[in-house]
Amino acid sequence: MPATEAKIFNCTQSRELAEKIAGHYGTKLGNVITSTYSDGEFQPSFEESVRGSRVFIIGSTHPGSDHLMEMLLMLDAAKRASARHITAVMPYFGWARQDRKDKPRVPIAAKMIASILETAGATRIITMDLHADQIQGFFEKPVDHLYASTVFLPYLRKLGLDNLTIASPDMGGSKRAYAYSKALESDVVICYKQRAKANVISHMELIGDVTGKNVVLVDDMVDTAGTLTKAADLMMERGAKSVRAICTHPVLSGEAYDRIEKSKLEELIVTDSIPLRQESRKIKVVSCAELFADVMKRVQDNESISSKFIM
């Protein structure tokens, strides 16, 4: 067996996406089984040799915490099985919203997770649309930070919307919105919001004119969909012709699905970085599998991936 042979494995929560990635890569998923004890403790096991191989372990770390734990256990198993390179492929990097201390006596969870992944055995990280770009600096190992714009921009161009305006649902996403507007040669508007507490918006205002515009809201993730649907309704009230949203990671917790159905959003376009909990007529999924497969193959062949960093 060649020392540099690549093998692809999946965490259970990302099985469907991993199968698509392996298909685009041109191989099959490796054989891994997970045994579960009666109290809920589980143990993944590689059922084939990985000695001397480059191992890719695919798994998003969205809640609950078992998803992160499974990734850590598989990294440790690969390390102890003498894999040569161990790449954690995390389409969604969970806990990323805790990237700084925003008040006293709170953790910086994103930094802690980065350290744990490396301790477990990850020699490289491949992820997409981090909540904050600076999270890359929390790692001592190489991080390939991909952008979902690679798959979203072709979709938006196919829609052929006239009077297109890109919007950010908050001030923090303005950089992302400007990058999309530059690529699409469109205007930009920004929503300014104030929160009473996490996931609760007390006030929202619109900066810019959306009268007669086809608006596309851009964000890295959608959780409860409170911000997104409130922004969409506000823009329609201000004279927008239509409002769509593109959000890379469909966390979609709580009342998110119900809010989206009742909102004035034309559609919500997401990737398959996180599997949907239920179907919705308003939610369109654009796969990121080919993007990850291409980057993984380039990493394996020691080729440049700079062409994938279009934002």
From TrEMBL:
Name the Gene Ontology biological process terms. 5-phosphoribose 1-diphosphate biosynthetic process; purine nucleotide biosynthetic process; ribonucleoside monophosphate biosynthetic process
| InterPro entries reported for this sequence | PRib_PP_synth_CS (IPR000842), Pribosyltran_N (IPR029099), PRTase-like (IPR029057), PRTase_dom (IPR000836), Rib-P_diPkinase (IPR005946)
Keyword Nucleotide-binding listed = yes
Q: What is its EC number?
A: 2.7.6.1
Q: Which GO terms describe its cellular component?
A: cytoplasm; ribose phosphate diphosphokinase complex
Catalyzed reactions per annotation: D-ribose 5-phosphate + ATP = 5-phospho-alpha-D-ribose 1-diphosphate + AMP + H(+)
The record's keywords, sorted A to Z, are: ATP-binding, Cytoplasm, Kinase, Magnesium, Metal-binding, Nucleotide biosynthesis, Nucleotide-binding, Transferase
In terms of PANTHER family, this protein maps to: RIBOSE-PHOSPHATE DIPHOSPHOKINASE FAMILY MEMBER, RIBOSE-PHOSPHATE PYROPHOSPHOKINASE 1, CHLOROPLASTIC
> Which residues does the UniProt record annotate as the domain Ribose-phosphate pyrophosphokinase N-terminal?
7-121
**Record SMART domains:** Pribosyltran_N
What are this entry's molecular-function GO terms? ATP binding; kinase activity; magnesium ion binding; ribose phosphate diphosphokinase activity
Entries under Pfam families matching the protein: Pribosyl_synth, Pribosyltran_N
Q: Which organism is it from?
A: Christiangramia forsetii (strain DSM 17595 / CGMCC 1.15422 / KT0803) (Gramella forsetii)
- Which leading EC class covers this enzyme? transferase
User: What is this protein identified as?
Assistant: ribose-phosphate diphosphokinase
